[in-house]
From TrEMBL:
NCBIfam families: ilvA_1Cterm. PANTHER family: L-THREONINE DEHYDRATASE CATABOLIC TDCB (PTHR48078:SF6), THREONINE DEHYDRATASE, MITOCHONDRIAL-RELATED (PTHR48078). It comes from Ornithinimicrobium avium. Keywords: Lyase, Pyridoxal phosphate. GO terms for molecular function: L-serine ammonia-lyase activity; threonine deaminase activity. It catalyses: L-threonine = 2-oxobutanoate + NH4(+). Residues 21-311 form the Tryptophan synthase beta chain-like PALP domain. It is an enzyme of class 4 (lyase). This is threonine ammonia-lyase. Its cofactor is pyridoxal 5'-phosphate. Belongs to the serine/threonine dehydratase family. It comes from the Bacteria.
Length: 409
């Protein structure tokens, strides 16, 4: 018999009572664009609009509210790439507890600043969340602070499960819930809350394929760490599933899917453009899965579908890079190198033709020192804004037909 604590519907309901005066239900937005794309009614659960920018305050506050007075005097310590850090810092401020948070050296500046802004002491260490957890555990041992785990505790899972209660209330006829997954706290909590009263609802986890510890772990029957992670979705870049979430996910969750970095970038841009919602890469993972399925979503799942946008804490500089990548993946950015004779009028002729094809030139550079370039030629690097893949292909073909030597970057 397992000695790992489980989480029941009563636990989630008790957590909602704890959170009643702390958070308000986040919006549920119907997405006509995603519904048209998938052939299913799709709703977006906007945890990116939660206090501190993600669902994490739900679990952090629930856990910390149950500390004894003696534990509160000792303070708390946590490890996080950003969202849990902000949830712990805000909960600590609300509860009058001193908090220390260990964050990776690569953590984004806005997440660092927000965590400090809520009053926590921030220490940067290591490169990954697992590095930070190890140091935070040492802090716990040496200084007596209470460690607040990002996902692997029954109180944390119960708190995150309150999101599932809101989903059932906001979309009573929901049939499928798609959830971005790192350590598994949110997925396990939602599954525990939903399956207790609606066992017919399908709950699906989604991971970044370059940080996917869950598929192998579920196959093995126990948490198995991944050797290497490399993803822009730092909010779900967790090397090993939590023991408490694992038990619930293995029992209650029907499927665990993965999505590529390109799919995440494309989904993030899609949400900005079509839903007018800013999310971080992890927050776009569920949407990315539905977008990749397209019309096949109606074959795989029943609707209505709820995709959880788990967080919105994104560095504007990263957002800029992702938007560029997402537009490139969608065929909206076209990068070319065009070789032409180095004579007056050749560049003007190419630009005139591009204008006639309704291309917007974003960047242009001349290169005369390119390997293999003819003595009398010049290489022109162009970054163009186009209307999609078909338009981009037409532009390239038109340049070739005009006699230009063209290479796509």
């Amino acid at each position: 018999m397992s000695t790992i604590p489980t989480v029941t519907l009563d636990d989630v309901l008790a957590a909602r009572e704890v959170l009643a005066d702390v958070i308000a239900p986040t919006p549920m937005e119907f997405s006509q664009a995603l519904s048209d794309r998938t052939g299913l009614p799709v709703h977006l659960k906007c945890e990116n609009l939660q206090r501190a920018g993600s669902f994490k305050i739900r679990g952090a506050y629930t856990r910390m509210s149950r500390l004894t007075e003696e534990e509160r005097r000792r303070g708390v310590v946590a490890a996080s790439a950003g969202n849990h850090a902000q949830g712990v810092a805000l909960a600590a401020r609300l509860l009058g507890i001193e908090a220390t948070v260990y964050m990776p050296n690569g953590a984004s500046m806005p997440k660092l600043a927000a965590t400090r802004g809520y009053g926590a002491t921030v220490v940067q260490t290591g490169e990954t969340l697992d590095d930070c957890i190890e140091v935070a555990r040492q802090h716990e041992t040496e200084k007596g602070a209470v460690f607040i785990p990002p996902f692997d505790h029954a109180d944390i899972v119960a708190g995150q499960g309150t999101c599932g209660l809101e989903i059932l209330e906001q979309v009573p006829d929901v049939r499928t819930i798609v959830v971005a997954t790192g350590g598994g706290g949110l997925l396990a909590g939602i599954a525990a809350a939903v399956k207790a009263t609606r066992p017919d609802v399908r709950v699906v986890g989604v991971q970044a394929e370059q940080a996917a510890a869950w598929p192998g772990s579920l196959q093995a029957g126990h948490p198995v760490p991944v050797a290497r992670m490399s993803t822009m979705a730092d909010g779900i870049a967790v090397g090993r599933p939590g023991d408490v979430p694992f038990e619930l996910v293995a029992e209650l969750v029907e499927a665990m899917e993965t999505v590529s970095e390109a799919a995440i970038a494309r989904a993030l841009v899609y949400l900005v453009e079509r839903a007018k919602l800013v999310v971080e890469p992890a927050g776009a993972a569920a949407t990315a899965h539905l977008m990749e399925l397209g019309e096949q979503a109606a074959v795989r799942y029943e609707g209505p579908v709820v995709a959880v946008l788990s967080g919105g804490n994104i560095d504007p500089l990263l957002l800029l890079r992702i938007i560029r990548q997402g537009l490139t993946v969608a065929g909206r950015y076209l990068q070319l190198q065009v070789r032409v004779p180095d004579k007056p009028g050749n560049l003007a002729g190419a630009l005139t033709m591009l204008a006639q094809m309704q291309c917007n030139v974003l960047e242009i550079q001349h290169h005369r020192r390119v390997p293999g370039l003819g003595l009398g030629d010049v290489a022109i690097s162009l970054t163009l804004e186009t209307r999609g893949h078909e338009h981009s292909d037409g532009v390239v073909q038109a340049l070739v037909d005009r006699g230009y030597a063209v290479e796509r970057a």
